[in-house]
Amino acid sequence: MIPRYSRPEMSKVWSDENMYGLWLDIEIAASQAWTNLGVVPQSDMDLIRNASFDMELYNQHFEETKHDVISFTRSVMASLGDESRWIHHGLTSNDVKDTALSLQLTQAIDLLDKDVDDLMDALKVRAEEFIDTPAMGRSHGIHAEPMSFGLKFALWWDEMRRHKVRLAQTRETVGVGKISGPVGTYASVPPEIEETVCSELGIEPAPVSNQIIQRDRHAQYVQTLALIAASLEKFATEIRALQRTEIREVEEPFAQPGFVTTGSSAMPHKRNPEICERICGLARLVRGHTVTALDNVPLWHERDISHSSAERMILPDSSLAVDYILERFTAVVKGMRVYSERMMVNLELTRGLPFSPRVMLALVESGMARTEAYKKVQSLAMRTWDEDLDFRELLRDDSEVTDAIGAEELEALFDYNHFLRYVRHTYARLGFSVAAQPATAD
To answer: pTM, whole model, 2 decimals?
Structure first.
């Protein structure tokens, strides 16, 4: 069953039609390789190239055999004449199945790589848009120091860039074929066959195999997807937190094409971060599949099939889920509302407390011991918290502070632009434009 969250291109990769088509491609390529060695007559090979697969016939054979590859080869052979005897010549089931699975994995990675590119493009646009927008940075969920809001997107862009590298490495890892016969000895099919088939399919032969391609490769695939999903959950969680009514600095698209138009069946006022919550849920699903993928690595001797049934679920499901949440988060990034005026309200929420580190450093630079400077600034900060006072006014009224720093220098410390002064340095290291203009408030 294809999940509701599947997208057409990725669904096609994991469709039976694509899988059996790849099986047929491998069988025909193997026959051609045997022809190259002089085993299969060229006249037979010319006919084998017309072979076809019949799903209805396959189902009939499967009812009898309960064996997928036997049912497949019988279906294909039925489309041929005497030359059908060369179908599956010298091969074992996983020569076909595992090699085809490798091709499906590379096809899936190619789609995911494009998804990552699309998300990176969207993140870069918004990073440059909000390069000069001050927002409160938070640690432990508590106000820390101001930062460029665009820096959040730049940070996410760089994280996705690392995932592009991981995908490329994983494509190389999973992009191998195996045409080595039972238990990988080449006793029934010489290495030349494997080399020819893999070359025609555009993949490399596995340097060594037994009866299967080793499942650490497939585990790496699922783990790479889980890492991507974990990052998307991290990004989506940030948007969910910033969309809270009490903060309301951003809001995922609402009542736009492709997004929800109602938030609650009971409360008409609700505009919930529904897409970001969905992304978080599916990311957890993918993360859970890594355990199964790792459990599939240790098999008995040269093979068993304890991995097979699980793979039929976790490999398509992980691929479909990550493909979907990449597309959804890209749409969120492109369409999300950013309330920069609200960011300024939140910056002022604690009445100047974000400037406490600057004041402390200024006191130290004036000659005060760091411990004393910390205690002085902390005592005034605690009064700001506990008595609901303005931190800047407390500093202005404290003679010890003004004597050490000076009133004019003290006022200069209360500047939010100070926290943005090196953001272009970071952007330049990422290769971003550094000439972005300050964003306007919504």
So the answer is: 0.92
